[in-house]
Predict the 3D structure of the following.
Amino acid sequence: MSEKSFQDYYPESLQHCYGCGPKNPEGHHIRSFWEGEESVARFTPKEYHLAFPGYVYGGLVASLVDCHCVGTAAAAAYRAEGREPGTNPPFRYVTGSLHVDYLLPTPLGGELEIRARVEEIKGKKTIVTASVIAEGKVTAKGRVIAIRMPEHLRPDPG
Ligand SMILES: CCCCCCCC/C=C\CCCCCCCC(=O)SCCNC(=O)CCNC(=O)[C@H](O)C(C)(C)COP(=O)(O)OP(=O)(O)OC[C@H]1O[C@@H](n2cnc3c(N)ncnc32)[C@H](O)[C@@H]1OP(=O)(O)O
């Protein structure tokens, strides 16, 4: 591993998410990075991640959008304050809303790219939109409303 992904900055207690936790041995290990104003994650589905022969299961596509966008919301909160991730006070987010439009069947076999953009940061809510790209085509679009994690849910109060 060279460059640190957003998820590498999550505190240990939040590194077990099935979608993006680096410490979940059964998980997808989604990793997100800034590329200018966009964030990008790349993921190659396994052959068993299929919906029907040759095409990716839509639930997996939704997971990729979800974790990538929630991670982007957290990263954007630090960026908006000009702070390094991992500095205090911490920003933690959960999914409040996840919407996915499946525009084309997503071909199975190659790498998918998930590109996201922060549309709005408003109080506790951050709206992030994403495109899922396979073989140069946008096969799905997503919109996530990420919400600041309430204190009572946070495993790492501070
Ligand atoms: C370089 C980066 C470094 C980063 C380091 C950071 C590390 C950590 C960061 C991240 C860790 C992430 C770990 C992975 C997570 C993966 C994603 C998941 O799978 S998360 C699991 C699935 N999601 C749930 O289980 C939520 C369940 N729902 C709830 O707990 C509540 O409903 C919650 C917290 C979402 C909202 O609770 P309320 O409504 O009591 O909270 P109130 O404070 O009143 O609302 C806040 C604002 O949000 C709006 N809101 C709430 N729900 C909404 C919704 N569904 N749609 C739109 N707006 C909503 C409200 O209207 C309110 O807006 P107004 O402030 O008044 O403008």
Notes: The CA atoms of residues 55 and 105 lie 6 Å apart. Helices lie at 58-80.
